[in-house]
Amino acid sequence: MKKVILTATIALAFAASASAAENVKATVHADQAGAKINREIYGQFSEHLGSCIYGGLWVGENSQIPNIKGYRKDVFEALKALKIPVMRWPGGCFADDYHWMDGIGPKNQRPSLRNNNWGGTIEDNSFGTHEFLNLCEMLGCEPYISGNVGSGTVKEMAQWVEYMTSDGDTPMARLRRQNGRDKAWKVKYFGIGNEAWGCGGNMRPEYYSDEYRKFNTYLRNQGGNQLYRIASGASDYDYNWTKVLMDRIGGQMQGISLHYYTCTGWNGPKGSAINFDTDQYYWALGKCLEIEEVIKKHKAIMDEKDPKNTIGLLVDEWGTWWDEEPGTIPGHLYQQNALRDAFVAALSLNVFHKYTDRVKMANIAQVVNVLQSMILTDQEGTGHMVLTPTYWVFQMYTPFQEATHLPVDLPTETVQCSTDYWKKKQDTKDNSTRPCPLLSASAAKTKDGSIVLALTNVSLDKAQTIDFNFAGFNAKQVSGRILTSKNVADYNDFKNPDVVAPTDFKDAKLKKGVLTVKIPAKSIVVLNIK
To answer: What is the structure's pLDDT at 16?
Structure first.
């Protein structure tokens, strides 16, 4: 349950204004309000991969596991509490092997499907278009559909849009009504392909641009439903992909995707989710934070072609990617979720908040039982569920949704780590070193006029005392919660589900408008200030 973090040699570079003997001095600029933090930044991703769908979201109406119309009751209620704004489906790589007509109509007449991308699992297609869109309605979130460009046809994709969104007397609307749904759904977000540079077709950006133009031509808005069309964008450092797409289809898309994983590489072992040493810990957090530089470079390309920010950058796959847990099914990407993963979530969200003028959506991978998931369900069919440390970060951060971003000045020490283990990796950028700031913060003004302030202290052994001044805001009252544990490798499992869970935070005090926060090592704190 609790893994020992090994000691390692690290070099600390101290910021000039941060002293070990004095409180850190920080400022929240409430007088410099920025852009609104789009609630879609807190989006989720549900792919037909492992037990994300079957056994995770869906058990069927005849299951002995308590369910609501076939959806796992405990999972549904946990997701409802997160105020999920948007959910992406059916993939991922699976999307470009998925033919939607196989997943409609009477369940006992739907053909089975071999999941060619993820373990060769045979699926019965009992979870299809109706099941996904109805779930989104029940959760109160926007659906984000990924269409099949890789192995699909223009006609197939156009008919899917008609089936979902037409309220007229059209062939696909009539078919939908025959299958039990009279009223059309509202489907705003539609992705034209996924990872076209890889599992979505191994295309060049020039070729994909032409394919996008062709498919996009026939995706017609039905009635009052207006599609937000999303192009299959780059993988992390491929800035040329973004440039080509902005040059060739910039006027025909409303959004472009970006995929970025905190991962040691795509060849060989990726490391354990719960067994790691100090250098691996800090390196991973530094890798996660590098997404800021990646966003800035893609954003600069987009800013040149689209200075009015009419095209959104959607980070629709992000999160940690470790080795599968021993004893689980190969290809199902089931991994545990430690406090380290919670830090990756908090640090990434803090970055997204800063660029919300361009970053309009983000979808963590994935919602249940896959990679950096919100929820884990047992693999034995006993109906147990556990909420991960990452779930609690999303739950604590809900006040940021639709709040107005505020700049924060926060000096911090930085860890520079370097190990022979990472130097052996060959397929990611500059794996030998990664800087990792020990402190991070994000602030926003909510609709009721209060300020939400998130703080992370990723240091393994050093608590920090921070004095916050508020420019343009008179702070009178503070409350908050903290997420921490004895070790950063601690996690929740079915026998011990609450090892890493939030509690009330008592070490924040206001005096004459100055907020003093004593934040322990290995902690995430979210404060509400009035």
So the answer is: 35
The rounded distance, in Å, linking the Cα atoms of 232 and 477 is: 46
Q: Return the pLDDT at 418.
A: 65
Query: Mean pLDDT across the stretch 356-365?
Result: 97
pLDDT band for position 419 (cuts 50, 70, 90)? low
Sign of CA dihedral 365, 367, 371, 375: positive
- Dist. CA 458–CA 334, nearest whole Å: 25
| Structure tokens given for 220 | 């017609």
Rounded mean pLDDT, 239-254: 97
Helices and strands in the chain, H and E counts: 11, 28
Three-state SS for 282-301 is HHHHHHHHCHHHHHHHHHHH
Q: Which amino acid appears at position 347 of this protein?
A: L
Count how many Cα atoms sit within 13 Å of the Cα of residue 50 in the half-sphere of its side chain: 26
Question: Cβ of 49: how many Cβ atoms within 10 Å?
Answer: 28
Bridge partners, 527 (sequence order): 453, 480
As given in the structure block, the two tokens for residue 364 are 């963590």
Per-residue pLDDT of 260-306, as tens digits, reads 999 988 888 999 999 999 989 999 999 999 999 999 999 999 999 99
Q: Which residues does residue 356 pair with via DSSP β-bridges, in sequence order?
A: none
**Against a cut of 0.90, is the pTM above it?**
yes
**In angstroms, what CA-CA distances link 211 with 201, 243, 265, 313?**
11, 16, 29, 20
Q: How do residues 164-220 score in pLDDT, each as one tens digit?
A: 999 999 999 999 999 999 999 999 999 999 999 999 999 999 999 999 999 999 999
Q: What is the CA radius of gyration of the chain?
A: 23
Decide: 285 and 435 in contact? Cβ < 8 Å: no
* Omega prior to 92 cis, within 30 of 0: yes
CA dist 205 and 193 (Å) reads: 13
Catalytically active residues are: 195, 317
Give the residue among 526, 485, 260 at the shortest CA–CA distance from 395.
526
